[in-house]
Amino acid sequence: MSVLDNWDEWKNFLGDRLDHAQNEGMDEKVISNLAFEIGDYLAKQVDAKNPQEKVLADLWSVASEQEQHAIATMMVKLVQNNGSH
After folding, report:
1. Which CATH number fits domain 3-79: 1.10.150, 3.30.450, 2.30.30, 1.10.760?
2. Is the pTM of this model over 0.70?
3. Are the C-beta atoms of 32 and 60 separated by less than 8 Å?
4. Reduced to 3 states, what is the DSSP secondary structure of residue 24?
5. What is the pLDDT of residue 85?
6. Which domain of life is it from (predicted)?
7. What is the CA 15 to chain-centroid distance, rounded?
8. How many Å apart are CA 8 and CA 33, to the nearest integer?
9. Whether the Cβ atoms of residue 12 and residue 59 lie closer than 8 Å to each other
């Protein structure tokens, strides 16, 4: 089973990666840009596995690049301190 199959597992996975990136000294701008790149890749290359991902993919598909950056930033905020550690 992939972490993409379950929304809570996906958020925990992202939260763990975010904690690791912050502990390694990555600043918020770099993290936000990586979140945008990951979001763009997922939207273009990966089928949504659950209803939440479908909503994000639909929003991403109609958003401007600036709005996509905002979505990515909101996802970072959503998973902040949401990791399993």
Report:
1. 1.10.760
2. yes
3. no
4. coil
5. 47
6. Bacteria
7. 9
8. 23
9. no
Task: Return the percentage of the chain with pLDDT > 90, whole number.
Answer: 29
What is the Cα–Cα distance from 32 to 48, expressed in whole angstroms? Answer: 21
What is the residue type of 5? D
Beta-carbon contacts of 29 under 8 Å, excluding residues fewer than 6 positions away, are none
pLDDT in tens, 27-56: 888 998 888 998 898 888 888 888 988 999
CA distance 54 to 79: 18
Least confident of 7-16, 22-31, 53-62: 7-16
CA distance 67 to 56: 12
